[in-house]
């Protein structure tokens, strides 16, 4: 069923399938977080991810998506998003963003984390913290009856409050459900109170991409890899979530987001 401006409205049973897909994604990302180390290639991470997704009875949604060759995106240092797993060897001090998607019975989950490998500068750790926290501030700003850009505004406000960071504007969060990318767009910037209404059965992926320098980026000749123009470090965090009458439910977090939402004073809407 489709509601306001083409937004797909899921039944509770369909949301439950999305939770299953979300758990596969969350578990895969936790496995990758533990596995990522200096000396391994990004393709080795991809193999771990694909094996875990398939052995969980799910399908890696990125594989073959518009011809993308990997089961995950591996975006190292100045790569913002869409890095292709390959022969690149991860080095001590690298900051690796890993984006992962899985499908269970036709329903999607999509999430990303940024991992510090070995010793990275405090400024890199702070960039990662700000990006992840901005994502959570987005969830915290979402409530039934509100609007999509309430999330956008909360993400941007938090990033701006933390220092001179750049927010990448060309890539945005999105609706998710029976496809990975659906309406509406969920920008990481902008004024609140705009876009489709936040209603029960809506599911969104919120995914700030924050850089230590200028937010300008370009795509490499492989037609996928997005890098910052000035070579500055980028971080990317993402979760898929929904709203129930009880509160927010982060479908791609292992605990449904319960602990972090409590810390932010936001009611947990999961089951
Ligand atoms: Mg993603
Ligand atoms: Mg996404």
What's the layout of helices and strands?
Blueprint: H1 12-35, H2 42-55, E1 59-60, E2 72-76, E3 79-81, E4 95-104, E5 107-116, H3 122-140, H4 148-161, E6 166-167, E7 173-175, E8 182-186, E9 203-206, E10 209-211, E11 217-219, E12 226-228, E13 234-236, E14 239-244, E15 247-250, H5 258-263
Antiparallel strand pairs: 1-4, 2-4, 3-12, 4-5, 6-10, 7-8, 7-9, 9-14, 10-13, 11-12, 14-15
Bound molecules: magnesium ion (2 copies).
What does this structure look like?
The chain is globular. The protein has five helices and 15 strands. It is of the alpha+beta class and 271 residues long. It has one domain (4-263): Creatinase/methionine aminopeptidase superfamily (Creatine Amidinohydrolase, Alpha-Beta Complex). The protein has helices spanning 12-35, 42-55, 122-140, 148-161, 258-263, and strands spanning 59-60, 72-76, 79-81, 95-104, 107-116, 166-167, 173-175, 182-186, 203-206, 209-211, 217-219, 226-228, 234-236, 239-244, 247-250. Helix content is 28%, strand content 24%. A hairpin with a 2-residue loop joins strand 4 (95-104) and strand 5. One magnesium ion binds at residues 99, 101, 110, 112, 207, 238.
Write down the secondary-structure element order.
Answer: HHEEEEEHHEEEEEEEEEEH
Q: Using DSSP, what is the number of strands?
A: 15
> In whole angstroms, how far apart are the ends?
23 Å
- Main beta-sheet strand count, sense and barrel state: 5 strands, antiparallel
Which residues sit in consecutive blocks of at least 5 with pLDDT less than 50? Answer: none
């Amino acid at each position: 069923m489709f509601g306001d401006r083409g937004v797909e409205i899921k039944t509770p049973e369909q949301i439950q399938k999305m939770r299953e897909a979300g758990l596969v994604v969350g578990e895969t990302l936790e496995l990758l977080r533990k596995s990522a180390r200096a000396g391994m290639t990004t393709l080795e991470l991809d193999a771990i991810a694909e094996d875990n997704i398939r052995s969980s009875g799910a399908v890696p949604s990125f594989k073959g998506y518009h011809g993308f060759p990997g089961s995950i995106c591996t975006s190292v240092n100045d790569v913002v998003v869409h890095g292709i797993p390959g022969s690149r060897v991860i080095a001590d001090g690298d900051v690796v963003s890993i984006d992962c998607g899985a499908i269970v019975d036709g329903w999607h989950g999509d999430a990303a984390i940024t991992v510090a490998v070995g010793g990275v500068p405090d400024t890199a750790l702070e960039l990662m913290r700000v990006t992840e926290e901005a994502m959570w501030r987005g969830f915290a700003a979402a409530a039934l009856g509100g609007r999509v850009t309430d999330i956008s505004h909360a993400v941007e406000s938090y990033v701006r409050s933390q220092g001179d960071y750049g927010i990448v504007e060309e890539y945005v969060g999105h609706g998710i459900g029976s496809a990975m990318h659906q309406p509406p767009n969920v920008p990481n910037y902008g004024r609140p109170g705009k876009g489709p209404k936040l209603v029960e059965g809506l599911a969104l992926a919120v995914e700030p991409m924050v850089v230590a320098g200028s937010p300008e980026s370009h795509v490499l000749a492989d037609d996928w890899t997005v890098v910052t123009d000035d070579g500055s470090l980028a971080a990317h965090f993402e979760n898929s979530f929904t709203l129930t009458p009880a509160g927010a439910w982060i479908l791609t977090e292992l605990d449904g987001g319960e602990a972090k939402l409590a810390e932010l004073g936001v009611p947990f809407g999961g089951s």
